[in-house]
Amino acid sequence: MIAEHAATPRLTYSQATRDLLATMRTPGMAFWLLLALDLAVLAWGARAWLYQIQTGMGVAGINHPVGWGVYIATFVFWIGIAHSGTLISAILFLCRAGWRPAVYRSAEAMTVFAIITAGLFPIIHLGRAWKFYWVFPYPNDRLLWVNFRSPLIWDVFAIGTYMLVSVMFFTLGLIPDLAVARSRATGWRRRLYRALSLGWRGTDNQWHHYRAAYLFFAALATPLVISVHSVVSWDFAATLVPGWHSTLFAPYFVAGAIHSGLAMVLTILIPLRRAFRLEAYVTPHHLGQVARLMVLTGLIMAYSYAAEFFFVGWRGTPVERELFRYRVSGDYALGFWLMVIFNTLIPLLFALRAVRVRIWLIFALSLLVNVGMWTERFVIFVTSLAHEYLPFAWGTYRPTWVELSVIAGSFAWFFFWFLLFAKLLPVVSLTEVKEALGPEAAGEAR
Amino acid sequence: MTGPRLKRREFLKLLGIGSAGALTACSNPQPEKIIPYLVPPEEIVPGRATWYATLCRECPAGCGVMARVREGRVTKVEGNPGHPVNRGALCARGQAALQGLYHPDRFRGPFRRDASGALQPASWEAAEQELATRLAELRGQTADGAVVFLGSPLPGALGQLVDRWLSFFKGRRLAYHLLNDEALGTANRLAFGTEAIPTYDVAAADYLLIVGADLPETWVSPVAFIQALAEQRAVRDGKRGQVVYLGPRLSLMAVNADRWIAIRPGSELALLLALVHVILAKGLAVAGSREERRRLATLVRAHDPGATATRTGVPAATIEELATAFARAPKALAIGGGMAVASRSATAVILAVNLLNWITGNLGRTVRFGPTLRRAASPYRDVRALIPAMEAGRVRALFVAGVNPVFSLPEGARFRAALSRVPLIVSFASVPDETTAHASLVLPDHTPLESWGDDHSWAGVHGLQQPAMAPLFGTKAVGDLLLSVARRMDVPMARAFPWPTFAEFLRESWKAIAQEVSPDVPFEAFWADALRAGGVWRPAAAQRVILSPRALQVTFEEPTFDGAGPNSFYLHPFPSLLHGDGQGADRPWLQEVPDPVTQIVWDSWIEIHPAPARRLGIVEGEVVRVGSPYGTIEAPAHITAGVHPEVVAVPMGQGHTATGRYATGVGINPVTLLSPEPGVPSGGLCWQSVRVRLERTGRRHPLVSVAGSLSQQGRGIARTIALAELTRGSEPLKPEAEPSMYPPHEHPRQRWGIIVDLNACVGCSACVVACYAENNVTVVGKEQVARGREMSWIRIERYQEDGPGGPELRFIPMLCQQCDNAPCEPVCPVYATYHTAEGLNAQVYNRCIGVRYCSNNCPYKVRRFNWYQPVWPDPVPLQLNPDVTVREKGVMEKCTFCVQRIREAQERARAEGRTVRDGEIVPACVQTCPARALVFGDLNDPASQVARLARSPRGYHVLEELNTRPAITYLKRVVSRKDEAR
To answer: ipTM value of the model?
Structure first.
């Protein structure tokens, strides 16, 4: 058993460089198998989507009145995942949290990949996916324009901005590391890293500008964490739909996003750390810190759930009351109770040291929170649409194989990028690990 | 947008056919030349509709219709505003006549059965020659009744022609109508000495007692009755008429009554006699001599309320109350009839109804023999007698026209077997059905919209039917065929039929009418006027009738039932609003539109009361086996309190095995459970004469209902108002909107609106079918409806409230509310939906990318998404309305208030240099509504009818609290009892 606060082992710069760049060695059989499996699932999902485009949205389970189903739930889920990267990276950077260097690179990569995955879903759920570019306000000779009153247009901008800033933040942080990789790589990789490291030579002047830019991006990204998910929540909050129409939604969604993002960081980092033998860099202490943060976010979720019910009781409109009765005891009651247990009770276990020191347990619980957060989106969207104002138009919804295949495909898409990332880029920041080691580690190496 | 699959060549061909049809107005089987519009016929302007007045032949009511013709094809039928029977309205089945014309399974030419027993296409020449040859063998050597023409009632020239033709073979014509109410005619003959059906002045009745007759559904003349019921319900001088319904089931009529008294089949006779008893005992009788009353009192002596209460289960107090109310009402009316009373005592029941009307002095007041309706149908007894004649080999040739006896006779299987003994079976069916499957020759008739004909059922009403378009396929009118065959026969016969076409014969026969109606007008002018108007009509003189002494000499006997035994139920088959006797089952619109009472689509079901269902352990959707002494059917159970606990009710019209792609394999046919013995003395089919046993099968067959919840959850969607409250004066609609961040919409010219009068609406669903027809709305089938994907732009929502006398249903038509503050508009990312200057929420199909956000945000849930690419099998594309875009998969659609009609009227007005007149624009739903429950107009014009009605104290907006400011104002249904108003 590893003590939670075990001191970082004495490492040198050269050892760190060797260890961390070792992840980028030529992949073995296991990697190729994993990649092949991933591509197979991705191909299946793509086939399902093409089938849907060709045949019509009818092959999905969405219907009248439930016009949005698991596609939108998964969209919001991925947007949520996309949050923690920036949170860990930018906010913890601004707060100077000591455990950040170990985890932030993978968290940022996760952000970028999650957002390109999330971005697919609004297109997937379009009745005429081939017209998706109509949501962009581009000049055209038909004088068509977008409706800036529609929250979906706000989404286009919020997500687009977030994606751009995340990508820039991610690539900026990579520059010094890629310069190191450049010097060790050969062939096409060398050319790739040369291009991406933007002529980095490690001069004082460059370091000076780099630090300034990094701080600037961290400051820029932080409000975006709040804004992007607030805007996504307005897709729902700005409607009349009971169970959606609530001012609580923006903070509620932001909290949920951070909560699910932290869970996803754990879900990804724990196997990664094992696979690349990074135990010395991503320590149980680091994982424990993330888990402890989830106790807080879990409590925020619990508060949000309670507040939703409070507001419904307080406003007292019969339509909302009936909806919340339906949520807890109707067709989707199982989902509701899963969401409550997985998102609020399970994370409380992280308060126990006995849980935090068992890495496999952290992993298992983080998976449950991921499931719970996906279920939360499903429950919010589907129950509200299924049980609206006109009782005659009430209905139910059940996803079909097409929707499930597309969702499986989206996970494959996400992991495809992640697998590439793991082999092409340093998964833990060399620069910041070395920074944390301090100048004495350099001396020993020479 | 992907358009219908109509090829350019076909289109041009149709243009040609259209012009040829319009010029010659005759029924050439095939166009011989394709005439493009190089020299356009004067009255045809491409893009502008031409209207032809003709008749609806979907049921024998004889409503007049106008067929809208665009570029040579009929695209819509609507009620003929000038026709006295339906006065412009049309029912759901009438609207669906279009789908008979464009049915993809129609025969496209004649067929003959070859040696192997398969039907093979043939030429008309060969088919006619074969028929003539085989008839020539029969000619001369035939015994009486060897040639039989079994057809639908042909109440005009065609019937005369057929009779004349048959006389050359000593043949016999049987006019078969399954829902013929033989007992009605018989009882009227017994009571008043005439078999005619009188005029029931429903609209004027203060107190309406209906025994069985389903006025808004299939009985006699549904459209006319719905109009009358709506008038009767309307509040006049602070009063409105009461309606009491006696029957075993909560039918559409029962839903629209103030009170439904559930009774066992067979007990209505005792109840009616008890009413007479009470009226006599209380000295409320006003008609008849002292002697007549004494005799009547003797007849009903045994029927005092106490004894009747035990016999019928209706409390004695209720009986006394009903009798008193009926007798005291200034104008009361009792109507009996229909399948619900067609027990073995059917004639006695209607006789009792006649006596009730007579004794209370309502004969001549609300029951008037003028104008009268004469049914041209033969009694069921005669039709049934055909079976033994066929079995004995006495029938050598059988012609079947417009009927389907293998399906609709209780002994259908026996009839089918007997067909094998008939050497020549000629079917004139235009679509394959169970009977055609056994025909030796299929000589397809035109559909009614392609045919000539006439109808004189109502005294004084001469309806004229003309082809609205040239025949779509290689079919031939029955009349033309008979003439053509006659010409191929021997000289005397050929000479007896000098008319080149049936149209000529018809014209000839109308010369007598011209003589009678307007002797001073030249016939050509008279004929042109009749064609334009759809017929001629003049007021028919009322005939004075008196009670026949024979009516007081009858003995009333309780009906008997077969299959009695412990745990048996009375079987109540009821005619379906949408499918009638089964003729409407192959119209996909009528399958897809839900039955308003149960909201079930594309199926049959067995209605069982919850109490016996619990006892037997039957659950909703479980397949139960229903066994009578005559047959067995299996169908899913529908548990409902809308049926008497001792009764199981089964809708009719489904259960086809070979009637095209839409009807085949859907539901079951309860006729097979019935006793085939005709009733005495009427000779009618005894619909209520068997008791059945129920058996569970354990299998499930989920019924597809479009209704989410039966309860309106106290949300005030379908509202009522007590009469007392209304007359006291309640507050009018709150006119002003809540404050908004955005400036209000300007509606500088018009703001269109609809008023929906829930007090008039009976839920008949005609508006729904009219909308399907007008707006090219797709049919998606049972499986997709089960997933909530029906495409209807307007629907009849049904909610149930618990009333003192059992469940009370309320209907509310729901369509796009064209909100001023529409929740759908701001959420659309691409402006595919936006607010027009006339207050419509326009939907631009070409701009829609299908995010479905608008539908999510619509609290009325009236937007419909195209989940798949619509499928229009050939020749359905020809039926599509060219003024309405056909939508592609992936786009949203919804009610437009028939914007194409608004634009047409506006353009017409502009061309004439005036503004649009109030009432000039009528969307399809408003146009067809038999109850006149819908009114369309400009809310900006304070003098318009809609603006006036919108200020009614009965007015309200659905979900008003959401501040959507709908353009639709609903008017509350007026109820009489205080406890009903919610």
So the answer is: 0.91
